Amino acid sequence: MGDSADTMRRVVRQSKFRHVFGQAVKNDQCYDDIRVSRVTWDSSFCAVNPRFVAIIVEASGGGAFLVLPLHKTGRIDKSYPTVCGHTGPVLDIDWCPHNDQVIASGSEDCTVMVWQIPENGLTLSLTEPVVVLEGHSKRVGIVAWHPTARNVLLSAGCDNAIIIWNVGTGEALINLDDMHVDVIYNVSWNRNGSLICTSSKDKKVRVIDPRKQEIIAEKEKTHEGARPMRAIFLADGNIFTTGFSRMSERQLALWNPKNMEEPIALHEMDTSNGVLLPFYDPDTNIIYLCGKGDSSIRYFEITDESPYVHYLNTFSSKEPQRGMGFMPKRGLDVNKCEIARFFKLHERKCEPIIMTVPRKSDLFQDDLYPDTAGPEAALEAEEWFEGKNADPLLISLKHGYIPGKNRDLKVVKKNILDNKPAANKKSDLINAPKKAADASNIQNEAKLDEILKELKSIKDTITSQDERISKLEQQMAKIAD
């Protein structure tokens, strides 16, 4: 055992995060009167970045989510515009890590849509996505952007398929449709986006190389219980899971994908029945667990010393959470030693909760804020699909993060004829010589089409504005009378 000082040290572990405490903001800093979606689906229903908070809301008939500028706190008017192009309920939303005005949504209507939000938020409801990604045959419950490659988006549906899209061309480039035999609970990219891990209703956790389309590790009965699991990659390549024991106790565990026989650590927690959503901060190695339907957030530090998963504390409140958003590090207030900010969804409101490390000094605390993933993509989509890997490009938070200008998401639909010819099509052999000329003609025609479409939509807009103006004039006239 060593001497008593050693034992002492084990009892009280040194950690700068031992005294992290959570605090809900005052009422006037909440977003009020929001009808949070009631759809039965275990996603977080909320996505945030340094500019906006997005929340899936109730929508009669279709599917919608709100996008609010962070400063737009207080009561949200019933008539506030939404993003409402889906024809079925929205199940999951995810902000693009490389563009704070681009958000993806997956829906019960079997599509994924990618949206461009105006710089200052919505003034009118948005019904036209930049691109619609069609490829799933059942509802799409999971969307997750690649951490380091621009415009690469993963979606997973209840058809048990995972599709990886190049959003810049609107193409499905990888389709993993034979790896899962049951519902996929969640999907997580690793730090550089070379691997994904998934948890599924068959109680397996799988580690997949998406470009080779191979399962490189799997664990059966990760957690023995039947209720939903979660599995996420940590920065060091290990995998953290939450699930249930056979006795329906909630569990958390840590795994090394190179040897999945036994967990590195396994902890039992309590017997509540909500799924535990893990939120992970790679900079501090803290995991925050938010149970759906719980009214608390528990947080743990992961280290390489036994017992590896160290309980830090619990933030408790009175109201249960319906969902939760988690701010990227660059959106936090470093001057206040804020190390995490959650956006807790209630039935009718969204309440920010701020996690702070108590420090006396006003100086920048560089031990709390190592350089963190910035908004620049390290790779282009094509480079990643060709096999390149890159870690996130890091930025310093020493002077706070100032959001830059985002370039608009441009989608250039690939011309079918520009693709490499498939060798087995007869028509290719016949039409080969004309092909190059045709392709450029078709491209020009496509451009022309696009311009005409744009003109038409401008005309339509003007017509509808005209109608609106004349209606308003009539109403004004009535009032004047």
Explain how this protein is built.
The structure is a single chain. With 481 residues, the chain is mostly beta strands. It has 4 helices and 32 strands. Mean pLDDT is 90; it is low at 4-9 and 416-436. The protein is globular. Strands 1, 2, 6, 28, 29 and 30 form a 6-stranded mixed beta sheet that branches. Strands 3-4-5-7 form a 4-stranded antiparallel beta sheet, with no helix packed on it. Strand 16 (184-189) and strand 17 (196-200) form a beta hairpin.
Cα Rg: 24 Å
How many β strands by DSSP?
32
Please work out how many helical segments DSSP would assign. Answer: 4
* Beta-strand proportion: 25-35%
Identify the overall geometry: globular
- How far do the termini sit from each other? 93 Å
Poorly predicted regions: 4-9, 416-436
The biggest sheet, with number of strands, parallel, antiparallel or mixed sense and barrel status, is: 6 strands, mixed
* Secondary-structure class: mainly beta
Query: Helix coverage percent of residues?
Result: 10-25%
Mean pLDDT: 90
In short:
With 481 residues, this protein is mainly beta.
Layout of secondary structure:
Elements: H1 4-11, E1 21-24, E2 31-32, E3 46-48, E4 52-57, E5 63-69, E6 74-75, E7 83-86, E8 90-95, E9 102-107, E10 111-116, E11 131-134, E12 140-145, E13 152-157, E14 162-166, E15 171-176, E16 184-189, E17 196-200, E18 205-209, E19 214-219, E20 230-233, E21 239-244, E22 250-255, E23 265-268, E24 276-281, E25 286-291, E26 296-302, E27 309-316, E28 323-326, E29 338-345, E30 349-356, E31 372-373, H2 381-385, E32 394-395, H3 426-431, H4 435-480
Parallel strand pairs: 2-6
Antiparallel strand pairs: 1-30, 2-30, 3-4, 4-5, 5-7, 8-9, 9-10, 10-11, 12-13, 13-14, 14-15, 16-17, 17-18, 18-19, 20-21, 21-22, 22-23, 24-25, 25-26, 26-27, 28-29, 29-30, 31-32
InterPro entries: Coronin, DUF1899, WD40/YVTN_repeat-like_dom_sf, WD40_repeat_CS, WD40_repeat_dom_sf, WD40_rpt
Family: Belongs to the WD repeat coronin family.
Organism: Dromaius novaehollandiae (Emu)
